[in-house]
Amino acid sequence: MKFPISGAAMALALAAAWLPACAAAQQPPQIGAVSAMPDELATFQAATSKLYAMKEKAFAQGDVDPIINRFYAANAISVGPEGKPYEGRAAYAENYSKIVQTYNVKVEPIHAYVNGNAGWEWANFRVAPKDAASTEKPFSFVILFLWAKVNGEWVCAGDSYVVGEFKND
C-alpha cells in the first residue's frame, strides 16, 4: 500500500532535517586558550615571557630603547582607551620616553594563542609609580598583545589596552 506524501510535507521534512545542521555550521568558531600544538604554545610563551621581562626591566631602568627597538616592530600600532592610535618607532619613543621615567610595570599573561608565525596574548599590565612618595595609586590595564614571528624572532606587532584587569583565579 502506498501513502501519498504531499510536496509541502516532503519540503517540511527535509527542512526539519537540514536546518539543525545549518545552524550548527553557522556557529562562530571558538578559539581556546591553547593552540592546537602545545609545544608551539610553550615555545611562544617562553619567548614572550623573555620579551615581557625585557620590557619590565626597561621601565625599571627608565630606558626606552629596548622597548622601541626590540619589543615592538618598527611599524607596530597601539591604541588605548582614548581611542587615539600611535604607530611606528617615533610615536612609541615619544609616548614611552615619558612613562618609563615615572612608572614600573609588570606583565601578567592570562590567555595566549599561537599558530605558525602569528600569535596573541591577553595580559594584565600592572603599573605602579616609581616614586614611593607619590599619591598616585597603582592601576592595571587589560592588554591584548599581537605577535609576529619575523626571521625566527617574536616581535610585538601592536597592542590594544583599556583600564581594568582580568581576575586571575
Automatic annotation (TrEMBL):
Q: Where is the DUF4440 domain?
A: 56-155
Family matches, as InterPro entries? DUF4440, NTF2-like_dom_sf
- Name of the protein this chain belongs to: DUF4440 domain-containing protein
What Gene3D superfamilies is this protein classified in?
3.10.450.50
* Keyword field: Signal
| Annotated signal peptide | 1-23
